[in-house]
From TrEMBL:
Annotated family: In the C-terminal section; belongs to the PPC synthetase family. In the N-terminal section; belongs to the HFCD (homo-oligomeric flavin containing Cys decarboxylase) superfamily.
PANTHER family (UniProt xref): HOMO-OLIGOMERIC FLAVIN CONTAINING CYS DECARBOXYLASE FAMILY, PHOSPHOPANTOTHENOYLCYSTEINE DECARBOXYLASE
Domain DNA/pantothenate metabolism flavoprotein C-terminal: residue ranges: 183-400
Swiss-Prot/TrEMBL cofactor(s): Mg(2+); FMN
Annotated catalysed reactions: (R)-4'-phosphopantothenate + L-cysteine + CTP = N-[(R)-4-phosphopantothenoyl]-L-cysteine + CMP + diphosphate + H(+); N-[(R)-4-phosphopantothenoyl]-L-cysteine + H(+) = (R)-4'-phosphopantetheine + CO2
Chain positions covered by the region annotation Phosphopantothenoylcysteine decarboxylase: 1-187
Gene: coaBC
Recorded metabolic or biological pathway in which this protein acts: Cofactor biosynthesis; coenzyme A biosynthesis; CoA from (R)-pantothenate: step 2/5; Cofactor biosynthesis; coenzyme A biosynthesis; CoA from (R)-pantothenate: step 3/5
Annotated positions binding CTP: 277, 287, 327, 345, 349
Annotated protein name in UniProt: Coenzyme A biosynthesis bifunctional protein CoaBC
Amino acid sequence: MRIVVGVGGGIAAYKACSLVRKFTETGHDVRVIPTESALQFVGKATFEALSGNPVHTGVFADVPEVPHVRIGQEADLVVIAPATADLMARAASGRADDLLTATLLTARCPVVFAPAMHTEMWEHPATIANVATLRAHGSTVMEPASGRLTGADTGPGRLPEPEEIFALASLLLERSDALPRDLEGRRVVVSAGGTREPLDPVRFLGNRSSGKQGYAMARVAAQRGAQVTLIAGNTIGLEPPAAVEVVHVTTAEQMGTAVDKHSVGADAVIMAAAVADFRPVNVAAAKIKKGAHEPNSIELTKNRDILAGLVQARRDGHLAGLAIVGFAAETGDEHGDVLTHARAKLARKGCDLLVVNAVGEGKAFEVDNNDGWLLGADGTEQSLDHGSKALLASRVLDALGPLLR
Ligand code: CTP
């Protein structure tokens, strides 16, 4: 695919280098178009070396090839990172005073802006209006991350991490349409990762969930405009998604407490976490040692089912109107195939949607791609095509939208 990476003039321009690298490493043909001021932060040679293509900022280089029109027309995706307040203002008003803005006017492919600026600039009515205009024009403007900005200030306006921009850009290539803003004003709770049930201060019972699918759910929901709380169990060093509140927990009991607390007033809960069904009855205060008192078995007790608890609370009228999504990682066995088990689980759990993944043989756990089925309480069944975890998340959210009160 032909990807244009536009780079605005902000300190986060250095992160565009990692982004360019990710695109070239995944086999894309990348053209980097910086603004003149972006070159104050990162040199032209860096972008040329990373992309393997010439880099220009103005419309008067290679004139016979008409690059100010051709690059945009031929692009499959344009990603602007960092998108500064000034660059978005110029793009929103249709200016074409450099190669990048001219390219934006001629591009008919998906366009993603990854904003980076100080909080005051992001929250200024002029920027808010420009973002709304760009979205109305069909572009995807990402929610920025919160955190440390240049200097000591913190707040929303930080460039989302390159991995996150890459994930969202790849999702747009897979979906081939702009990301809808259909979750604006909605509160969504997502659980992710595996829980750990301690045996002693150094050992635990855990599972192979990486948290990647839950993080993708949270990330895509936030970028569709939802206010998202992510209850994260153990994950493999994942970056917190931009514009998402992350609550870290360890055990199933802690996860249950956090999910219960944040579900109050939420529109949807998505239980992507792999919650341990059992925990050790006794947790040793000191490390269990070899020697005189070696244990030869671990006595277990059942954890409560968080998902079933939510469904019950809704039946009892405590969480009226809450949409509830469960996940099921299944293997077939002598009693039935994956879908047979999944249909039974949906009926047993009583949630509105069940996302079903077949696991084993390197599928679903720890990997970046996923597929499966989406079963609805109304009897609908949809297969979820193989693709990124963000694509699967996005399909689940497509189905969830109409279920929200
Ligand atoms: N779940 C939960 N609380 C638990 C166990 C599971 O909320 N104590 C949720 C998971 O987050 C997931 C769904 O229930 O959304 C299904 O999880 P799974 O482990 O497949 O279901 P179980 O009920 O444990 O079914 P089984 O072990 O019989 O396959």
